[in-house]
Amino acid sequence: MLDIDIRLRRGRFERDVRIVEDARVLALAGPSGAGKTSVLNAIAGLVRPVSGRIVIDGRTLFDSTAGIDVPTHRRRIGYVFQDARLFPHRDVRGNLRYGRHGARRGPETFSLEAVVELLGIGALLDRRPANLSGGEAQRVAIGRALLSQPAILLFDEPLSALDQARREELIPWLQKVRDEVRLPMVYVSHTQDDVRRIAEAVHVLD
Ligand SMILES: Nc1ncnc2c1ncn2[C@@H]1O[C@H](COP(=O)(O)OP(=O)(O)OP(=O)(O)O)[C@@H](O)[C@H]1O
């Protein structure tokens, strides 16, 4: 599913990362500063590796030898961050619709109705982000990512800004997304508990 062999450089940080993994849902673990976010950003096309290749689900996104560097907007990435990063001036419906801007023309895999149903956010559609709990905001952020019709979902510590109760609330939704959308997922986390409950395999960057 994931075939990554890259050299990363971020300022003075430099390391080789090699991940060859068949599992559909992979967790990336490891200490702070190990390069987890940099790997996600390299997959998303936001950080350019010095060299190497990134192949996901048979699709080559980057290959320095072959001169391939697919632009970010063509990579079909759904990215969910620590904080939901919703637009404060738009209601939930408006935030979800924004996800479609990034979508390619063509058949829609994830419709607004299906995403609202999947994430249980129908009652929130007219609310502004300021009136959502952290967990609700993350569900909307996941919905927005799905509406961009991604081929892969990237999660960068989606629980880490939430308190324990909200984490417990969000995990079943993440499991539902994992089981129902069947996309490749790369899930970065510091904590073993959510890794164990969400991922099929773990790759440790140390
Ligand atoms: N734009 C940048 N310029 C210089 N150095 C950077 C930049 N971005 C990241 N780094 C450095 O690259 C290294 C890896 O950072 P990265 O954020 O990928 O690690 P991480 O494993 O995700 O860490 P954390 O768990 O703390 O989020 C760190 O040493 C960081 O300081």
From TrEMBL:
<dbReference type="GO" id="GO:0005524">
    <property type="term" value="F:ATP binding"/>
</dbReference>
<dbReference type="GO" id="GO:0016887">
    <property type="term" value="F:ATP hydrolysis activity"/>
</dbReference>
<dbReference type="InterPro" id="IPR050334">
    <property type="entry name" value="Molybdenum_import_ModC"/>
</dbReference>
<dbReference type="InterPro" id="IPR003439">
    <property type="entry name" value="ABC_transporter-like_ATP-bd"/>
</dbReference>
<dbReference type="InterPro" id="IPR027417">
    <property type="entry name" value="P-loop_NTPase"/>
</dbReference>
<dbReference type="Pfam" id="PF00005">
    <property type="entry name" value="ABC_tran"/>
</dbReference>
<protein>
    <submittedName>
        <fullName>ATP-binding cassette domain-containing protein</fullName>
    </submittedName>
</protein>
<dbReference type="InterPro" id="IPR017871">
    <property type="entry name" value="ABC_transporter-like_CS"/>
</dbReference>
<keyword id="KW-0547">Nucleotide-binding</keyword>
<feature type="domain" description="ABC transporter">
    <location>
        <begin position="1"/>
        <end position="206"/>
    </location>
</feature>
<dbReference type="InterPro" id="IPR003593">
    <property type="entry name" value="AAA+_ATPase"/>
</dbReference>
<keyword id="KW-0067">ATP-binding</keyword>
